[in-house]
Amino acid sequence: MRRMLFGLAAGLGFSVPAVFAHGFDERYDLPVPLGYFVLGAAAVVALSFLIAVLFARQAARPDENPRCLPIPQPLLTMLWHGCRAIALALFLLTLTAALWGTGDPMMNLAPTLVWIIWWVGLSLLAALVGNVWPALDPWRTLFDGLDGVARRLGRRDGIAFYWRWPSRLGVWPAVALLLLWSWLEVVYPIAAVPRRLGVMMLAWTALSLCGMLCFGRTVWQKNGDVFAIYFATLGSMAPLAISTTAPQGLLLRLPGAALMAPEGPTPLPAGSVAFVIAMLSTVLFDGLHGGSAWSLFERILTQRFPQWMDVNGYFQGSAGLICVWLIFLLAYGLTCLATARITRAGSAALIARRFVPTLVPIAVAYNIAHNFSSLLIQGQNAIPLISDPLGRHWDLFGTARRYADIGLIDARGTWYVAIVSIVLGHVISVWLAHQVALRHNVTQRNAGMAALPLTCLMIAYTAISLSVIAEPMVTF
């Protein structure tokens, strides 16, 4: 078991979705040994902690009244309904392409639209600009439409039963669904078979509508809807947010300001820590699954559990996914336990809930490092595919012969984007962790000691991630 965990921990890294892996004709020759990059990045993260300890003497107050850019109600309503209509139409088009289009994933619109434009593109948009998923969510639109019809027909409470969501359950269903989503993406080749993708879309439609019907849309999307929770978590890092109170419009805030919001009377729901950790571990698992450390892990599994091994790799992939998540969860738990022992400022569970929002910038950084080149290059495939979504040799909009420009970014550019994003993400997390520590510890020294174990964990993450991401793209 120790060898198994070591093999997994050594291989934590990055890749893009299974059928859309990074591909470069030539590898990039590093100007200096890789160890210099790793040491330099780790030193920057450590230095950011020292700067925070020396110069941040008191916690920054989150802006309780962020600047709001008002939007006229008629325009806001038009934009809201327009986005929902377009998103629903794209959902139906994607479903049609997946179920009745060609079986070639590169000639079918569904895989590109789901894995690249939606899962990758919208994740980065939610994190770097603002969470627009509520205005695009087709399942929310479907439910609201059915609910609206029921109300017009005389059912005052709509179609939902509004059952009570168990507080102990929290967001644990969303944690399980996020792990399942990663399993479908990496272990089970759903991305390579459009029809399987269509069946998955139908299954999620049934589950999501059933959840909203039983518990109400708001409760379900806050606790059980993995995609709503995922995009909302990333959106807490963004500089823009939609104001739901008067005056309605766009809220302008510092990036990450929402992560420093003071604790309200309602604590984070159960499973929130596990969900954020799953956001980190599932991205890294994709890279681990195709890396050199995966061969070591499979050899260990073959020696220990030969009777469970299968040709398709389902057992190996499932075991790897769970182990990576548990390793991340264990590492974070031990870090919080060390903080609790050092500061005596509360239990390890309390400290874990306090500091877990500060890990969101790392999740954003991993998404950028992992997916930026994929979005930039393979996202261009949506232009010709929108004219021939089913792979029937159509040219509806005259773009069917537009080819992707694969020279927009190379291995060198991808490497430096990864370095900048990883280092910057960890630096922001270190700063936020220190701010959280200042808010809950009386003295500056105690705050520094409280954030020290988490900073050490972030330095380790930085070194490991840069070492592994270099494997498929650079020569060292």
Detailed description of the structure:
This protein has helices at 2-10, 34-55, 73-100, 109-128, 133-136, 138-152, 172-187, 194-215, 217-223, 226-235, 272-290, 292-304, 314-343, 348-355, 360-378, 382-385, 411-440, 444-469, and strands at residues 28-29, 67-70, 240-243, 249-252, 474-475. The protein is mostly helical. It has one domain. The strands form 2 sheets. Strands 2-4-3 form a 3-stranded antiparallel β-sheet, with no helix packed on it. Strand 3 and strand 4 (249-252) form a beta hairpin. Helix 3 (73-100) packs across helix 8, helix 13 (314-343) packs antiparallel against helix 18 (444-469) and helix 17 runs antiparallel to helix 18. The radius of gyration is 23 Å and the shape is globular.
In brief:
This protein is mostly helical. The chain contains 18 helices and 5 strands.
Structural class: mainly alpha
The whole-number mean of residue pLDDT values reads 84
What oligomeric state do these chains adopt? Answer: single chain
**Approximate helicity band:** 55-70%
N→C terminal distance: 31 Å
Radius of gyration: 23 Å
Largest sheet, in brief, is:
3 strands, antiparallel
Query: Judging from the principal axes of the Cα atoms, what is the shape?
Result: globular
Number of strands: 5
Q: Helical region count?
A: 18
Unreliable stretches (pLDDT < 50, length at least 5) are 1-25
Give the SSE order as H and E letters.
Answer: HEHEHHHHHHHHEEHHHHHHHHE
Strand content: under 5%
The strands making up the biggest β-sheet line up spatially as: 2-4-3
The tally of structural domains comes to: 1
